[in-house]
Specification:
Blueprint: E1 20-21, H1 29-32, E2 36-37, H2 49-62, H3 71-102, H4 114-146, E3 149-151, H5 159-173, E4 180-181, E5 197-203, E6 214-218, E7 226-228, E8 239-243, H6 244-250, E9 260-271, H7 284-295, E10 300-306, H8 311-320, E11 328-331, H9 341-344, H10 364-367, H11 376-382, E12 385-389, H12 395-406, E13 410-417, H13 425-435, E14 439-444, H14 452-465, E15 468-470, E16 477-478, E17 482-489, E18 492-500, E19 512-519, H15 522-536, E20 548-550, H16 554-570, E21 576-581, H17 587-598, E22 602-607, E23 624-629, E24 634-635, E25 638-642, E26 649-653, H18 659-663, E27 665-671, H19 675-690, E28 695-698, E29 704-706, H20 718-726
Parallel strand pairs: 3-8, 10-11, 13-14, 14-15, 16-27, 19-24, 21-22, 22-23
Antiparallel strand pairs: 1-2, 4-6, 5-6, 5-9, 7-8, 9-10, 12-19, 13-17, 17-18, 18-19, 20-27, 21-25, 23-28, 25-26, 26-27, 28-29
Length: 731
């Protein structure tokens, strides 16, 4: 990505910054060693959170141009970009606008206030959205046409297609669509968040003598945004689609009989979708249900409108939504691209247009089972099992729970659920366990963003089955991924645990990279028991032995280990830090990494998305390298590696390096103590660091440069390598 395709960040400061500590002039070391920077509070040493977030989305958009990806996967990346940008405006931009509106402006680590950030966001995002539609119109749609996948314009329809579309309009669209003429008796409707709408310019009087000149048409969500035409009315052997917007445009005059339609233009409004729950509520579930009703109608934050819409109509819409030109996005195509995902998922697509399928590997240690009914717990009792999803199957985790549900010796099951689904296999197993008389306690995080309604349904289903359901701790989201199974074995009680970096969602386990640990280690399982007791009961924080857990010991534990590496480096001992996370924004953690870098610790950060740390600044972070991996799978695992003077420590965690994770959530960070398993994770981290195909390196000025092999280097694609190593995948 070149410098014209990134948001403006402050330039990286030099080592001659006035806050630097300069050694005596007589010191020979002063010539060779850059002066050490001591003022770590200087905003110039930090990157803006929101602009870094936008840059991650741009790296996703770049995948739409990568010809190594199958064509429909390139389209999918473009649509993922749309979905990501939608959420960015619904949450992040909405939050900044709210700060200004409420007069509670907060300055970030980089010193930028919300007004300045919003200006940068809108400038950069408009450039990228324009580029997104250029990629769609000039690259992807022509390429799809060559593959016999056609998106037909109104002018390209043959007679049979026009007849079919007319019938479709009268039978499927017209009966449920509600045009709204704007006059004193029909005020402008309150439109739902991200709903496809049309503003219509009219001329003439209707049957009642009204002549307001405008109407609005909301398109019900029940209507498909992309309609597949029957093969027998098409002139080619390919797949033919037409957009719902084209169908409505073609028959717009049928909705306003006797009127002259001067123009019809798509638009879409994005609203604030963050939920605002007070900490002191009597019933969290009831309060959340009330908030969900209002989510679709939050404050307006962005207006998208087709680029040929006349300025007077645009001005009318902006005024109606209390927005300015800053929040206006003109687009050259459909305003709701994410609904094109159905095209990517069409089962009739040729296989070469999508990623080659693979079967996740079932762990070798469990392949020795005589049959599928052999209890996974018996194998976990022999040795810890480490799984790397999606390369290795998530099925053992589901099997462990299912078997526990039926095992007469299992007494109790406890589990946290963040994003799972009310009718998933995990939910089915918990329901079965409760109905078999097990003591089932589930901590359901009903505030998991955009999954709140699903989680409420899940909680209700579990309660109806007899499970005890709690909603965690008010003021703290429960983001930890834990399962505890209590089993009677002879005269003793044995505990088994699953700890993971990702959610208990089988679908995500095919798309996200995550680690799972199955263990019966007495200290770890006892720690898990204590954390569950803390979540469901009340009292002082329990002292745990091996786990780090937020908001109590996790941040301090990580910073202490970073500081220990700095101490070792100063003493000439082996010192290294490798951290793989999704985001890094927490101030104290960044400062600890800066100090470790100054001490000479080699630090490699694999940060998928947001990174507020500036690498490569002399005297501060010249020993820190930051890279981002964007590929077929969403990098989601969180791993913390510390050299520890040759006795390395490896931790996996549910937590990223963000303030919300370390200070305001219930999180766990668990050690991988079995040397073979820890060494395996270290080797896989090194694979990520060697990637020169799907990786991007963060520069000190805040830009990202894609890594590419030179003529002497082999191509190294970490996700491809792990697929080939851990599964039956054949390129």
């Amino acid at each position: 990505m070149d410098n014209t395709q990134r948001p403006t960040q402050q330039p990286a400061p030099s080592a001659s910054d006035p806050v630097a500590e300069t050694p005596p002039a007589s010191s020979k070391e002063a010539v060779k060693t850059p002066p050490k920077i001591t003022d770590l509070s200087n905003p110039e040493y930090y990157l803006n959170r929101e602009l870094s977030h936008l840059q991650f989305n741009t790296r996703v958009l770049e995948q739409a141009l990568n010809e190594e990806h199958p064509l429909l996967e390139r389209l999918r990346f473009l649509l993922i970009y749309s979905s990501n940008i939608d959420e960015f405006f619904e949450i992040r931009v909405a939050g900044l606008m709210q700060q200004i509106g409420y007069g509670r402006e907060l300055v970030g680590l980089d010193g930028m206030g919300p007004g300045a950030v919003l200006k940068e966001i809108n400038s950069y995002a408009k450039e990228q959205v324009t580029r997104q539609y250029e990629i769609l119109n000039e690259t992807l749609l022509p390429a799809l046409k060559k593959e016999n996948i056609h998106f037909l314009k109104r002018s390209e329809l043959n007679e049979k297609q026009r007849i079919w579309i007319k019938r479709f309009f009268y039978h499927e669209v017209m009966p449920i669509i509600s045009p709204i003429g704007l006059d004193p008796a029909h005020p402008f409707p309150r439109l739902a968040n991200k709903l496809l709408c049309f503003i219509v310019s009219l001329e003439g009087k209707d049957a009642f003598g009204r002549d307001t000149g405008m109407a609005v048409i909301p398109a019900p969500r029940s209507l498909p945004r992309v309609v597949k035409l029957p093969d027998d009315i098409c002139d080619n052997d390919g797949t033919n689609y037409v957009f719902l917007s084209s169908i409505i445009h073609r028959h717009i005059e049928d909705l306003f009989p006797g009127m002259n339609v001067k123009g019809c233009y798509q638009f879409r409004l994005t609203r604030n979708s963050d939920l605002d729950l007070e900490d002191e509520v009597e019933d969290l579930a009831k309060a959340l249900q009330g908030e969900l009703l209002s989510r679709r109608y939050g404050e307006a934050v962005r207006l998208e409108v087709v680029d040929n819409c006349p300025q007077p109509l645009v001005d009318f819409l902006l005024k109606e939504f209390s927005l300015t030109e800053e929040e206006l996005y003109r687009v050259n195509g459909p305003v709701n691209l994410t609904r094109m995902t159905s095209v990517c998922n069409n089962s009739s697509n040729d296989e070469h247009l999508t990623f080659r399928s693979f079967t996740p590997e079932y762990p070798k240690v469990l392949q020795t089972r005589q049959n599928s009914t052999d209890n996974v717990l018996d194998y976990v009792k022999k040795a810890d099992i480490l799984l790397h999803h999606p390369y290795e199957s998530f099925t053992p985790v589901i099997d462990m729970l299912r078997q526990a549900a039926k095992d007469p010796n299992v007494l109790a099951i406890r589990q946290t659920l963040y994003r799972t689904g009310a009718h998933s296999e995990m939910a089915d197993a918990l329901v079965e366990a409760a109905r078999h008389g097990k003591e089932v306690t589930v901590v359901v995080e009903i505030r998991a963003r955009f999954d709140e309604e699903e989680n409420l349904a899940l909680a209700l289903r579990l309660q109806e089955a007899g499970a005890v359901v709690v909603y965690g701790v008010v003021g703290y989201k429960t983001h930890a991924k834990m399962m505890l199974i209590v089993r009677r074995e002879g005269r003793s009680i044995q505990r088994y645990a699953h700890l993971g970096t990702g959610n208990y969602h089988a679908g995500n386990a095919r798309l996200y990279t995550d680690y799972s640990l199955l263990t019966c280690d007495k200290d770890i399982t006892n720690d898990v028991r204590k954390i569950f007791q803390q979540l469901t009961g009340m009292g002082k924080a329990f002292k745990v032995k091996k786990l780090l857990h937020a908001p109590f010991t996790l941040k301090k534990g990580l910073i202490d280990r970073i500081n220990n590496e700095a101490t070792n480096a100063k003493e000439g001992k082996p010192a290294r830090v490798i951290i793989k996370i999704n985001a890094l924004t927490e101030k104290q953690m960044i400062r600890a990494l800066y100090k470790a870098s100054q001490a000479g610790v080699k630090i490699d950060l694999i940060v998928r998305g947001i990174c507020c740390l500036r690498p490569g600044i002399e005297g501060l972070s010249e020993n820190i390298k930051v890279r981002s991996i964007v590929g077929r799978f969403l990098e989601h695992s969180r791993v913390y590696y510390f050299e520890n003077d040759g006795e390395s420590q490896v931790y996996c965690s549910s937590a990223d390096g963000m303030s919300r994770n370390l200070n305001n959530r219930i999180e766990t960070c668990f050690p991988i103590e079995e040397p073979k398993l820890a060494n395996r994770i270290k080797k896989e981290l090194e694979l990520f660091l060697s990637d020169n195909v799907r990786s991007w390196t963060l520069q000190s000025d805040g830009s990202y440069v894609q890594n590419k092999p030179n003529r002497r280097q082999r191509r190294r694609n970490v996700q491809r390598k792990l697929l080939e190593t851990l599964t039956n995948y054949v390129p």
